[in-house]
Model the fold of this input.
Amino acid sequence: MVNKKKPTRVVCAVIQRGDRFLCMQRTRSRYSYISERWEFPGGKVKRGECDHDALLREIREEMQWDIYIGRKLAEFDYEYPDFTTHLVAYLCRCDDKDDFKLLDHLNYQWLTRDELDQLEWTAADRELLKDL
Done:
């Protein structure tokens, strides 16, 4: 099935602390190919919203946490069977405490670059790993 709809713009935070990256496990979804898979946190950009504001909003909504947004790491379209995303990833920093809440995720891990491949990632986020 080919998706003819315009891709949904999604921003994500590749949050780095030292040599580790924050990995978040998604909740269950109606789409089995993203359900309970791992991702970098973020979400959809609303109409009229810039990437920076959207990413800060999404992290606050999903985690009640403030991050520092840095440079853009990658930007690409990814076509899933039922929808297409235009993913824009930013390298981000945080403070030294895990004082966020898991409001929209099942679990989290801080992993080194070499450890990231051990997780079952969403397909788009797996593509993003190539840019780290």
User: Anything to note?
Assistant: Residues 51-63 form the longest helix (13 residues). The mean pLDDT is 94. The helical segments are 51-63, 123-129. The beta strands are 8-17, 20-26, 38-39, 42-44, 68-79, 84-93, 105-112.
